[in-house]
């Protein structure tokens, strides 16, 4: 780093409205002036070094003569639309490709990025900088990524019309940009991701369905990059929301078996089994081998069933109690199964041989006293199917009895799993 | 009876199971522009144009193969890639040209609808607006997938050309000779015909469509070998149909009296061995081809443009989410159909012109494709083999040469 004392402050002249903004289209080919005010070259690109600062332009790349030169941010005196860039230190070093640089023109412009707040994939057309003066020098900070018609207009006329005219002519077009903090660059190469300090933590906060939509819009390599980096739970949720089973399979296939296994473990067993059954036997074996034993056995069992039977549709996430249990017992059981609560709407009662005897709509618990017996709260008719029951018949039952959850039993009448309404909805949508 | 029906359904299921992007593209290739251009070539020049089919088929295979390979390897559409690698300005320019040329193609599809139904005396002032509305609603609100299946199946009508090609008793010896003997003439109408043949078979918009379809289907580099076979089979199919259209027209029209195709009734004569059914068959074929392409073409154009320029696109999006996409899509249909309604609009000449424009635009799209597919950081080990580059670059030169020759010869003719 240069000691600050060496840089000379250039006085800023005439600050008008909007003067503190600069578009990348304007920065490109802006003249660079040395200490005596002679033009020594033009700006070719600008670069961030995200590990040092996430939004400050750290280097300007200048073309003049044969080779490109690097201007560090602290070698700049002033930046203005009229005069260009005046240096405060003209000892420039030749540019060599620096792996820690995110170059605006090369790496950002025209590429796709993720708009985290808008929850979609967008293409970068221009970048808006703020010119910040700290009393010593002007520094550029990335403010916005521009994506709309307005930025397309600027790009088309950049270099054709004077920048002032372009600014005036674009006024009637509504701006369309996203804040830099909410823009997520997509980089398939893991090493470069590290060097550019790119993480996908922001994506983990999104609703899984939104994340799935975004992932579907990206190319396979980019998809893989995201699933590789985000935590397994978020990845599992998003993966179950991806609509096309073929795409789900190819995402898992592309990941390392350990990572894939981590994700599959986090998924509902029935969904995990569905995806694994889409994979080639070899790959799904590899993934199963990497899994912990408890979820592995569940998934393996589910994999045994044919896809178009009740057994193939069901999952094993249900809460079953003994038929003599009370409401208090039920509440205790729920406390132990908090991860199931979100989708739970029915409790099941089984007898001593684990045979299914009754189904209890969860809401009825609220109206009953603590010592009431669950049996007395049971639904009037117990609708159940055998694991071999055909898919069509299962859908029919959901329609006929307006079910949310349908218990599935094996040949001995033991509760084996449940089919839930969300499975049916996905199934019908795929048809 | 029921058993028979279920067997029939089973066969249809198989038929659709093997169909992928390559096959669909091949079928759409013989749209109204294809039918009319090949018919005109045969009616006017007899067996002479047959020699073009071999090189055109080779080139068709090469371009389609490149597109599907790019789609499978990068997982991105053609306009996406052009934007990422060549920047906004070039993309904008190319997209503007694509919209213009595709607009003439949409016109030609509606012209096909107008002329096919015109054979039965139905007024274009009724048929074209109805068809335009039907297309708009089918794609935006309705179930395009089932329309696609019906259209694909209805393409069986093309077999009538193969049958007719035999029934008109063409001069097979001559047909065989001219299939391999190139004939070059510096005559504007001949060069115009050649450009049209190239443009209709290897239409630029199809490259965008095919690549998008490969990406949409999620075909990956690993599974790509299968798709390649499908693409090649599809290309041959296109060319076989083209061969028989030309032969049928040469046998039925040229051998009686060489004349250019002026309207649909002329073109229908190629099927005259079918007697009173000739009109019906031709009309059904042309109508089916036109409406199928009219569904795909505006949609594919709006997609390519919006993707390239970074606007939201897709019929699954709502109007408010993707305004530019819907605007462009609607505009293409409204203008494409609207122009056809102009009284005394020369329908057939419009169709022919649009295919020539395809031919003129093609080399420019090809240039970008070749440059993209040779980028190592994009394609890795999947870059073009050397001979692919040789063939495709020479094609670019030849087609640009043809265009220049056509302009040159026509200008000289005007003086």
Description of the structure:
The complex is a heterodimer of chains A (431) and B (415). With 431 residues, chain A is α+β, with helices and mostly antiparallel strands. Chain A has 19 helices and 21 strands. In chain A, strands 2, 3, 4, 5, 6, 7, 8 and 9 form an 8-stranded mixed β-sheet that branches. A 4-stranded antiparallel β-sheet of chain A has the order 1-12-13-14. Chain A has a 3-stranded antiparallel β-sheet with strand order 11-10-15, with helices on one face. In chain A, helix 16 links the parallel strand 16 and strand 17. The longest helix of chain A has 12 residues. By secondary structure, chain B is mainly α. Chain B has a single domain, classed as Amino acid/polyamine transporter I (Up-down Bundle). Chain B is built from 18 helices and no strands. In chain B, helix 3 packs across helix 12, helix 4 packs antiparallel against helix 12 and helix 6 packs across helix 14. Chain B starts with a helix and ends with a helix. The mean pLDDT of chain B is 86. At the A-B interface, strand 11, helix 3 and helix 10 of A face helix 5 of B.
Write down the domain tally of chain A. 3
How many strands appear in the DSSP assignment of chain A?
A: 21
- The CATH homologous superfamily name of the largest domain in chain A equals PRC-barrel domain
Overall radius of gyration of chain B: 21 Å
Low-confidence region ranges of chain B: none
Question: What is the β-strand count of chain B?
Answer: 0
User: What are the low-pLDDT stretches of chain A, counting only 5+ consecutive residues below 50?
Assistant: 1-18
N- to C-terminal separation of chain B?
70 Å
Architecture of the largest domain in chain A, according to CATH? Roll
Return the average pLDDT of chain B rounded to an integer. 86
What name goes with the CATH superfamily of chain B? Answer: Amino acid/polyamine transporter I
CATH topology of the largest domain in chain A: SH3 type barrels
| Structural class by helix and strand composition of chain A | alpha+beta
Residue share in helix of chain B: over 70%
Count helical runs of chain A: 19
Main beta sheet of chain A, described? 8 strands, mixed
| Shape descriptor of chain A | elongated
Distance between the termini of chain A: 62 Å
Q: What share of the residues of chain B does DSSP label as strand, in percent?
A: under 5%
């Amino acid at each position: 780093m240069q000691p600050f004392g060496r840089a000379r402050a250039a006085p800023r002249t005439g600050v008008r409205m909007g003067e503190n903004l600069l578009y990348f289209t304007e920065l490109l080919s802006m003249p660079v002036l040395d200490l005596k005010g002679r033009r020594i070259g033009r700006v070719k690109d600008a670069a961030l070094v995200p590990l040092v600062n996430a939004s400050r332009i750290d280097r300007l790349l200048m073309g003049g003569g044969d080779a490109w030169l690097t201007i560090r941010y602290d070698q700049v005196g002033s930046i203005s639309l009229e005069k260009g860039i005046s240096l405060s230190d003209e000892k420039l070093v030749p540019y060599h490709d620096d792996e820690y640089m995110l170059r605006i023109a090369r790496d950002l412009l025209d590429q796709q990025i993720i708009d985290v707040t808008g929850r979609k994939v967008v293409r970068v057309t221009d970048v808006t900088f703020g010119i910040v003066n700290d009393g010593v020098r002007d520094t550029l900070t990335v403010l916005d990524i521009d994506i709309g018609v307005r930025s397309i207009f600027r790009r088309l006329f950049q270099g054709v019309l004077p920048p002032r005219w372009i600014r005036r002519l674009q006024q009637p077009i509504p701006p369309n940009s996203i804040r830099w903090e909410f823009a997520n660059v997509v980089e398939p190469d893991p090493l470069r991701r590290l060097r550019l300090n790119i993480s996908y933590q922001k994506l983990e906060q999104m609703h899984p369905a939104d994340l799935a939509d975004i992932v579907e819009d990206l190319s396979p390599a980019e998809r893989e990059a995201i699933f590789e980096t985000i935590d397994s739970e978020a990845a599992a949720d998003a993966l179950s929301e991806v609509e096309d089973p073929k795409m789900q399979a190819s995402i898992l296939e592309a990941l390392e078996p350990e990572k894939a296994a981590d994700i599959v473990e986090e998924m509902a067993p029935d969904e995990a089994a569905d995806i694994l059954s889409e994979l080639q036997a070899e790959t799904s074996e590899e993934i199963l081998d990497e899994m912990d034993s408890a979820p592995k056995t569940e998934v393996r069992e589910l994999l045994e069933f044919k896809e178009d039977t009740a057994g193939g549709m069901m999952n094993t996430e249900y809460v079953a109690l003994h038929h003599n249990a009370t409401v208090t017992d039920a509440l205790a059981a729920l406390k132990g199964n908090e991860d199931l609560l979100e989708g739970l709407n029915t409790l099941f009662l089984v007898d001593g041989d684990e045979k299914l005897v009754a189904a209890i709509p969860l809401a009825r618990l609220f109206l009953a006293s603590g010592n009431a017996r669950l049996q007395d709260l049971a639904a009037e008719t117990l609708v159940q199917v055998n694991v071999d029951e055909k898919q069509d018949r299962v859908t029919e039952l959901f329609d006929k009895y307006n079910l949310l959850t349908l218990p599935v039993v094996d040949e001995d009448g033991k509760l084996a799993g449940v089919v839930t309404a969300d499975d049916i909805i996905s199934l019908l949508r795929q048809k | 009876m029921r058993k028979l029906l279920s067997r029939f359904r089973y066969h249809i299921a198989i038929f659709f199971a093997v169909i992928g992007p390559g096959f669909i593209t091949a079928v759409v290739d013989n749209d109204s522009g294809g039918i009319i251009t090949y018919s005109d070539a045969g009616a006017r020049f007899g067996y002479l144009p047959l020699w073009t089919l071999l090189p055109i088929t080779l080139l068709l295979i090469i371009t389609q193969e490149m597109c599907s390979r790019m789609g499978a390897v990068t997982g991105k559409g053609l306009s996406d890639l052009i934007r990422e690698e060549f920047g906004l300005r070039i993309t904008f320019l190319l997209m503007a040209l694509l919209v213009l040329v595709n607009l003439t193609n949409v016109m030609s599809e509606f012209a096909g609808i107008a002329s096919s139904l015109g054979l039965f005396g139905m007024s274009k002032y009724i048929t074209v607006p109805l068809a335009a509305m039907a297309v708009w609603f089918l794609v935006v609100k309705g179930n395009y997938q089932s329309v696609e299946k019906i259209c694909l199946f209805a393409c069986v009508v093309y077999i009538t050309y193969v049958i007719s090609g035999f029934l008109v008793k063409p001069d097979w010896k001559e047909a065989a000779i001219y299939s391999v003997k190139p004939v070059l003439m510096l005559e504007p109408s001949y060069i115009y015909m050649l450009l049209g043949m190239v443009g209709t078979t290897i239409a630029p918009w199809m490259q965008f469509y095919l690549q998008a379809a490969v990406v949409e289907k999620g075909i990956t580099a690993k599974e790509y070998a299968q798709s390649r076979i499908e693409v090649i089979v599809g290309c041959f199919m296109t060319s076989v149909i083209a061969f028989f259209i030309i032969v049928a027209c040469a046998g039925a029209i040229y051998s009686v009296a060489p004349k250019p195709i002026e309207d649909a009734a002329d073109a229908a004569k190629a099927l005259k061995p079918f007697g009173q059914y000739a009109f019906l068959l031709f009309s059904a074929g042309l109508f089916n081809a036109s409406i199928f392409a009219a569904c795909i073409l505006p949609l594919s154009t709006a997609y390519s443009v919006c993707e390239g320029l970074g606007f939201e696109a897709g019929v699954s999006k709502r109007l408010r989410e993707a305004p530019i996409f819907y605007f462009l899509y609607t505009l293409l249909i409204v203008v494409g159909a609207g122009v056809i309604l102009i009284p005394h609009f020369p329908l057939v000449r419009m169709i022919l012109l649009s295919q020539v424009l395809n031919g003129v635009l093609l080399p420019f799209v090809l240039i970008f494709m070749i440059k993209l597919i040779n980028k190592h950081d994009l394609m890795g080990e999947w870059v073009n083999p050397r001979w692919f580059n040789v063939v495709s670059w020479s094609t670019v030169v030849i087609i640009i040469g043809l265009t220049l020759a056509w302009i040159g010869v026509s200008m000289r003719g005007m003086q």
